[in-house]
Design a protein that fits this description.
The protein is of the alpha+beta class. The longest helix has 23 residues, at 254-276. It has helices at residues 45-53, 76-96, 121-130, 132-135, 151-161, 165-172, 188-193, 208-220, 254-276, 286-299, 316-334, 337-340, 342-349, 352-364; strands at 4-6, 21-30, 57-59, 65-69, 100-102, 141-147, 177-178, 181-182, 234-236, 242-249, 279-281, 304-307, 312-315.
């Protein structure tokens, strides 16, 4: 799957990372009658939610999106309890106010052109800057933060973790439909979002200093006003001491979210273990990694990814099994084996996209024409 390489002597006097976890999920607010998206502003869902969940609930750019986020969780079991509590509370609150929630990365038929933007200065500026690209960005994702307090270590962990982003996307795919059409992709969300600037898999940076210089140049030249407008699939968070994984579609099931978060945490912990032993991965070019991301978005777990070390295609499920073996020696230290084992269930049952497509195909069964229309008798 990957090739290790020595990195030369390095001092490791810094404190090891906490690997604590933060999870953010974006949900759709749905009209229970039409099943279309509906704004949550009229029922003051956010205001009511904040009274119960405090800062764990917030708006996103479109008025039919609501985001919940955990606090800083010390381990995956804390994160699991909090995510399930948040889902229960926000679902209950939505029902009490005449709405339903959906955990899907694109709505199957909603039209972004009729969706209102949340009245917030930040979103107003984004729309002014990016116009139709921003208005069309009606998508729903999962973001997972892993605590790495030393910034130099964080940039190296990001460099190496880039390799695994297509694997994570393949597992999470949950957006096959757009504007009432079967797009043919398992994650169409990716193709909506990559119209934004500063998205997709980043280049690698030799040091934190070089990353900072990159950000300073963008700010100096009025490309961005702060590093939060870096929307890569993985990034050092500009305000928290974390690296943030942003590649995943929002999964349908809470257990899927937790399994993905456990795998992400284990990935960073394993990479850090190699880092302290002066080992790491060969740093593949962004262009190569993007080939795998395309395959993951197009085919999900049913397709093939490229094993760059062997220079051959391999079924995505096989590479994900190798991935699980790769992180296995840190899983018990993290006490996440139970949560991570759900990845095997996901491999067997398929992703949310696979399940959506199965239902879609079942509804089409029996609707075929019995005879060509031209041969039907009229009268």
């Amino acid at each position: 799957m990957v090739r290790l390489r020595g990195q030369g002597a390095r001092a490791h006097s810094i404190m090891p990372p906490t690997f604590n976890i933060g999870i953010e999920e974006e949900y759709q607010t749905i009209d229970p009658e039409t099943r279309d998206l509906r704004s949550h502003i009229q029922v003051e869902l956010l205001e009511k939610g904040k009274r119960i969940l405090q800062e764990r609930v917030k708006a996103e750019m479109h008025q039919s999106v609501v985001e919940v986020g955990t606090g800083v969780c010390r381990n995956i079991k804390e994160a699991k309890a909090e995510i399930k509590m948040l889902r229960r509370d926000i679902v209950k609150l939505a029902k009490e106010n005449g709405l339903r929630l959906a955990s899907v990365a694109t709505h199957p038929f909603a039209d972004w052109r009729v969706q209102e933007i949340y009245p917030d200065d930040r979103y107003k500026h984004i729309v002014e800057d990016m116009q139709l690209v921003a208005r069309a960005n009606l998508i729903f994702g999962l973001h997972v933060h892993i605590g790495i307090e030393d910034r130099e270590t964080a940039i190296h962990m990001m460099n190496h973790a880039r390799y695994f982003l297509p694997h994570l996307l393949a597992l999470s795919t949950n957006s096959p439909f757009w504007l009432g059409m079967n797009t043919g992709l398992k994650s169409y969300r990716c193709k909506v979002f990559d119209k934004f600037p500063r998205t997709n898999i980043p280049d690698y940076f030799p040091s934190w200093g070089e990353y900072e210089n990159f950000i300073k140049l963008l700010i100096k030249t009025n490309c961005i006003d702060n590093a939060k407008k870096i929307w890569w699939d993985i990034r050092p968070h500009p305000f928290f001491n974390t690296i943030e994984f942003r590649v995943c579609d929002i999964p349908m099931r809470a257990d899927e979210t937790i399994a993905l978060a456990a795998l992400i945490q284990a990935t960073v912990a394993k990479l850090y273990k190699l880092h302290t032993a002066n080992q790491g991965f060969r740093l593949y070019r962004r262009a190569l990694l993007m080939e795998n991301k395309w395959r993951a978005a197009r085919y999900g777990m049913a397709g093939k990814l490229i094993d760059f070390g062997k220079q051959t295609e391999v079924p995505a499920k096989d590479l994900i099994l190798e991935y699980l073996e790769f992180v296995d020696d840190v899983v018990d230290e993290l006490d996440s084996r139970e949560e991570l084992n759900y990845i095997h269930t996901m491999l067997e049952a398929g992703s949310g996209a696979d399940r959506q497509l199965r239902v879609y195909q079942e509804t089409e069964t029996g609707l075929e024409e019995d005879e060509p229309a031209a041969e039907r008798k009229v009268g």
